[in-house]
Amino acid sequence: MQAVDPKDLAELLAFLPCETPDSWLDEAVRRQDMLLINHCYLEKCAARSAINMMFRYPDKPDVLAKMSRLAREELVHFEQVSKILKKRGLTYRPHRPSRYVGQLQVLVRNKDPERFVDQLIVGAFIEARSCERFYRLVPHLDDELAKFYTSLLKSEARHYKDYLTLAEKYAAEPIAERIAVFREAEENAILSEDGLFRFHSGVPAASGVRV
């Protein structure tokens, strides 16, 4: 199993506006059933997003190559999580998604090429936050799940970098300002109280979290 390069991990963590709160980690350890079910769903979503981007931008060979690889890897991860669910006697079921992606997507501009750049930045934040949460969760999990989540760090870190590199390439101007816009929204999504526990949810609400 290959671990993520420490320099790559440090760069990724610096890109994010904040760490995952300890209260979310406590809830994740307690709710590993929903953690895994929602993780399974998110791997499908990640593959779908990459494939959609391939169809929307078929004239960009580097986008096609990177998104094709990303989609394949995410589907493999989906299969791996599905096996873990089955092994643990859990059944995948439809469930309400978190607010996280919606809070970022609402800021995406309406027309290309600006929309394309924004979608790539959103992808970078999603992959970076996923990697950070795998990293934070590992010390709190059983050996099987800790080993699996450690194995995901390298690919998630690369996905983050792929999205960000493409955003920088296709933007007509420096993307620091757009990153700052999404960074603020991402921080709010992670640090504000959230009544729904999911892999990307915020601080568990004091009144408890819903299924």
UniProtKB/TrEMBL annotation:
What single Pfam family name could you report for this chain, choosing any that match? MiaE
InterPro entries the UniProt entry points to = Ferritin-like, Ferritin-like_SF, tRNA-Hydrxlase_MiaE
Question: What name does the UniProt record give this protein?
Answer: tRNA-(Ms[2]io[6]A)-hydroxylase
In Gene Ontology terms, what is one molecular function of this protein? tRNA 2-(methylsulfanyl)-N(6)-isopentenyladenosine(37) hydroxylase activity
Q: Known PANTHER family for this protein?
A: TRNA 2-(METHYLSULFANYL)-N(6)-ISOPENTENYLADENOSINE(37) HYDROXYLASE, TRNA-(MS[2]IO[6]A)-HYDROXYLASE
One record GO biological process = tRNA modification
